[in-house]
Design goal:
Layout: H1 3-19, H2 29-32, E1 33-41, E2 44-51, H3 59-71, E3 78-85, E4 102-109, H4 117-130, E5 135-139, H5 147-150, E6 161-162, E7 166-167, E8 170-172, E9 175-179, H6 194-206, E10 213-219, H7 226-234, E11 239-244, H8 248-263, E12 268-273, E13 278-279, E14 286-287, H9 294-302, E15 306-309, H10 314-321, H11 326-329, H12 334-357
Parallel strand pairs: 2-3, 4-10, 4-11, 5-9, 5-10, 11-12, 12-15
Antiparallel strand pairs: 1-2, 6-7, 8-9, 13-14
């Protein structure tokens, strides 16, 4: 094979890779990965691809999919594909403060309560951790903190204090966590006015010593009030995920959440439709208790992805209430795999956004060495 032919074949492979769709994040490879090495020798292609989101458990599957796409090209008899990953950074803060150790801050929000937002936030955090990422989980629901219960943290657990003003996050199920629930008694109501609640949240965020976190998942309180605005305006939020149910009233409130984030220039990474369908455990009959298709219609309206639809399943509630959420308790179950797929799409959307913010750096680079 001549040098000219090899060069042409490499150009063809590069174009194929740029246009190929990552089956997990559902983004083009050019959006979520960098080519570190691409070479062709005697019909054998060698490729090293670095994903910008965590893919530890799916590296083998990704390598197989990409190998098949490469071998389908004329002139290629086999392919040697190596997959690595490194999380992109969207947080531009670099002042040495605790938040500067966080690469990405993702707000998980809803327009109203009761749609399963906290359960979704916790399972997404655990899903990212299962892929190898370092994950923090911040319970921003000052009035009704639930993260300690969902993570199975023992009652009375308090964060360690450093230098009389910083908190060390509480480790639980492989993530770093912080919540007002660690600082007050569960029977103590938070009778605070808006500015007080906003100030408390700001303290939790800025005075927690997060340790080299790839993703800080923030479980937002429901609604679009002071706390949401405090987080959006005072912190460099990388992106937001809106959780809703197919019910019309939930969708109406979720729209307000999308509009709020857009007004404060926070990218909405996508929608998660919760309680989409119930399957009878006795006969297998499926019923859309809260309506159907609402999440997709809303995603289409705002031109954002529907990251996934989750079922109305009693095991999600039971496992969450027991402090062992689905992703942790049953990692190979269909429900856990759905949470992990949603987390991959969310991380892929964020990786795409983070890369677009880096001016002057090409999406794909090729090294012939």
């Amino acid at each position: 094979m001549t040098t000219e032919t090899t060069s042409s074949l490499k150009d063809t492979l590069r174009a194929t890779l740029l246009g190929a769709i990552d089956p997990f994040s559902q983004r083009s490879l050019g959006d979520v990965a960098d080519i570190l090495k691409l070479d062709v020798d005697g019909g054998i292609a060698s490729l090293k691809l670095a994903f910008r989101y965590p893919v530890e458990s799916i590296k083998g599957a990704l390598a197989n999919v990409i190998s098949q796409a490469i071998v389908a090209e004329p002139g290629i008899s086999s392919a040697d594909v190596e997959i690595v990953w490194r999380v992109s950074r969207a947080n531009s803060l670099s002042d040495g403060s605790p938040l500067s150790t966080v690469k990405n801050i993702i707000a998980v929000a809803s327009g109203k309560g009761g749609v399963g937002k906290s359960t979704t936030a916790v399972n997404l955090a655990l899903a990212l951790a299962a892929e190898g990422a370092v994950v923090g989980l911040l319970d921003a629901d000052i009035y009704g903190p639930s993260v300690p219960l969902l993570l199975g943290v023992k009652d009375g657990t308090r964060p360690e204090v450093e230098a009389d003003k910083f908190f060390r996050p509480v480790p639980a199920l492989g993530v770093q966590s912080m919540s007002m629930g660690y600082l007050v008694n569960e029977k103590t109501p938070m009778v605070w006015r808006g500015p007080m609640a906003g100030g408390a949240l700001q303290q939790l965020i800025t005075q927690t010593l997060w340790q080299d976190v790839d993703y800080l998942i923030v479980d937002m309180p429901p609604g679009t009030g002071d706390i949401q605005l405090t987080l959006s305006q005072k912190v460099s939020v990388s992106g937001a995920v809106i959780v809703t149910t197919p019910q019309d009233i939930a969708l109406l409130d979720a729209k307000k959440g999308v509009e709020m984030f857009r007004k404060v220039s926070v990218e909405v990474l996508g929608m998660v439709e919760n309680m989409a369908v119930h399957t009878c455990s006795s006969c297998g009959h499926q019923e859309h208790v809260f309506g159907s298709g609402g999440g997709q219609r809303m995603a289409d309206l705002y031109e954002v992805p529907l990251l996934g639809s989750l079922p109305l399943d009693i095991s999600i509630r039971e496992l969450a209430d027991s402090g062992t959420p689905s992703v942790n308790a049953a990692p190979d179950s269909d429900i856990s795999l759905q949470y992990r797929a949603i987390a991959q799409r969310m991380a892929g959307a964020l990786a795409t956004q983070a890369e677009q913010k880096v001016a002057g750096i090409p999406t794909i680079s090729v090294d012939d060495d």
